[in-house]
Write a structure and sequence with these properties.
Layout lengths: L4 H5 L7 H15 L7 H17 L2 H8 L21 H8 L19 E7 L1 H6 L1 E12 L15 E2 L8 E8 L2 E8 L8 E2 L12 E12 L8 E4 L15 E7 L6 E3 L2 E9 H6 L1 E7 L2 E7 L8 E4 L15 E8 L6 H13 L16 H9 L3
Parallel strand pairs: 1-9, 11-15
Antiparallel strand pairs: 2-7, 3-6, 4-5, 8-9, 10-11, 12-13, 14-15
Helix pairs in contact: 2-3
Length: about 375
């Protein structure tokens, strides 16, 4: 092939479709006849347009890379299927597919979904909150209102396809002649071309910006909860509809409470005497201070429930519980008079030499060793 289409556009031979498209747009803005009307520039513009027509079309590019003429009638093969001629085009031609039935495709495409992390305190998760969030997403370009054209201009009907978005040609195959329709290389199948792209969005119809939204976080969310906000995601190209925005809840650790589902857990340490005689303690809750009755004889590890003082249930009525786990503190050092009182208490309770207690079914080390040797 005489023309080096890759060199004309200034791209590598392994360039993808986006790189080829950007290179063509950059050169087209520099060499367009409306900007540079001299004949030499017009000839150069025709060259880059022809190069883009070949490299932007998968079949023509494949033929060009193989050394065939992408503009030869019927491709470059002799008999059988033409090079780059898909079998589906033959089926379309013989079984209901006709030229012009697809029509131009819209430039507008739905935007992508977006996800942001929202950090909340335990009380905000439990009771819900309204948050002002800053979101970085693509929005409709304010200069062109999503049209993609420079101010005062609009997309123009494609001269190649006349606005149909596709071109038709008669191709010969083993089934005979068939009318085949393909996307127009001049407009990419849109039916219109943008002669003067918007200087702010480069014909994309959208720009990235930071915007603020007010969001109501429902009560009962927890770490890992996802909240979907329809239509708050990325605006689509060409002024297309936006995607959705997902909020991923991250619950910060709490200094006192540990959350398990909708229940809250905390631990309080009480003196041995308070556990034996009973007492009333004041503890913190998400609703403020609350009194807890420690019954006489409370054991270490016992849990005292405070009903309906946990987190609200998500999308349901009611709340979880708050469970107070008691740890009984045994003194490690006694004053002489305190020690005398404890010994007197032990004598009165007959506990000067308290017998050890084993859990039901419990075995000592030597018992287990003996059973192992006896084959039990």
């Amino acid at each position: 092939m005489a023309n080096d289409y890759y060199g004309i556009l200034g791209v590598r031979r392994d360039a993808d479709a986006d790189e080829i498209k950007k290179a063509y747009r950059r050169l087209a803005r520099e060499l367009h006849p409306d900007i540079n009307p001299d004949p030499q520039t017009q000839e150069r513009f025709k060259e880059i347009t022809q190069a883009y027509e070949v490299l932007s079309d998968t079949e023509k590019r494949q033929m060009y890379d193989l050394g065939a003429d992408p503009f030869a009638p019927g491709g470059a093969s002799q008999g059988g299927f033409a090079a780059g001629f898909p079998f589906s085009d033959i089926m379309d031609a013989f079984f209901g597919g006709t030229a012009g039935t697809r029509g131009p495709r819209s430039r507008a495409r739905r935007g992508r979904n977006a996800t942001i992390r929202v950090e909340l305190d335990l009380s905000e998760c439990a009771f819900g909150i309204t948050k002002d969030l800053a979101v970085d997403t693509a929005v409709v370009c304010p200069t062109c209102s999503g049209e993609g054209t420079a101010p005062g201009t609009h997309p123009q009907t494609c001269d190649v396809c006349g606005g149909r978005g596709e071109i038709s040609q008669v191709t010969r195959s083993f089934l005979g002649q068939a009318m085949v329709s393909r996307p127009c290389p001049g407009c990419g199948g849109f039916g219109t071309v943008i002669r003067r792209p918007c200087p702010e969005c480069d014909a994309d119809g959208r720009v990235r910006t930071r915007r603020n939204i007010k969001v109501r976080i429902p009560a009962g969310v927890e770490d890992g909860t996802h909240i979907q906000l329809a239509g708050e995601g990325e605006t689509g190209a060409g002024g297309g509809p936006p995607g959705d925005l997902f909020l991923e809840i991250v619950q910060r650790p709490h200094a006192i409470f540990e959350r398990q589902g909708d229940d809250l857990h905390c631990t309080v340490t009480i003196p041995m005497v308070a556990a034996a005689l009973g007492a009333t303690l004041q503890v913190e809750t998400l609703d403020g201070p609350a009194d807890v009755d420690i019954r006489p004889g409370t054991q270490s590890g016992q849990a005292i429930p405070l009903y309906n003082l946990g987190s609200a249930h998500l999308n349901a009525h009611g709340r979880g519980d708050l469970l107070i786990h008691v740890t009984v503190e045994t003194p490690t050092k006694l004053e002489p008079d305190q020690e005398n009182l404890m010994r007197e208490l032990a004598r009165l309770r007959g506990e000067e030499a308290p017998p050890g207690k084993f859990a039901p079914g419990g075995q000592g080390f030597f018992s287990r060793l003996r059973d192992a040797f006896n084959g039990r």
